[in-house]
Amino acid sequence: xxxxxxxxxxxxxxxxxxxxxxxxxxxxxxxxxxxxxxxxxxxxxxxxxxxxxxxxxxxxxxxxxxxxxxxxxxxxxxxxxxxxxxxxxxxxxxxxxxxxxxxxxxxxxxxxxxxxxxxxxxxxxxxxxxxxxxxxxxxxxxxxxxxxxxxxxxxxxxxxxxxxxxxxxxxxxxxxxxxxxxxxxxxxxxxxxxxxxxx
Length: 199
What we know:
This protein has ten helices and no strands. By secondary structure, it is mainly α.
């Protein structure tokens, strides 16, 4: 729900009269902002309205956030599988399973553990092919935005939500349709896209 709210806020704040590069905002920026909102789930500012400290919510959400971070690189496997579906000659469901397990072994060194691997629950493989990288690169972008904001203000975004909102609108949302992703990333961070922000 928070993820889709991020999409809604981003779309609402775009200027409909402004020309947009290539008839659309970068999927990386779009998913990055949505993932940013999704990440609010782990912030006390969000969850304390539903859970109390005596329930141990803070500790549980902290563990959940850490678990998600530790598993974030598994997204690489899904991205490569997404690409493999279009780089290989696929003519049957068995071909998909073969590509799945080959990819799983190449990327994660995981042996097959079942006859029908769990892949089709991700609808993007059929509705939005070659798209899953947008989520992972969006996460890197979120981490960059948090880092840049903290460097500029000396505060984390949850301590200055209004200022962070203004930063997001002025530095990311308003110009998001004017520049290719790489150029926008450089304009905000002062450097090329890199995974260091996720570490």
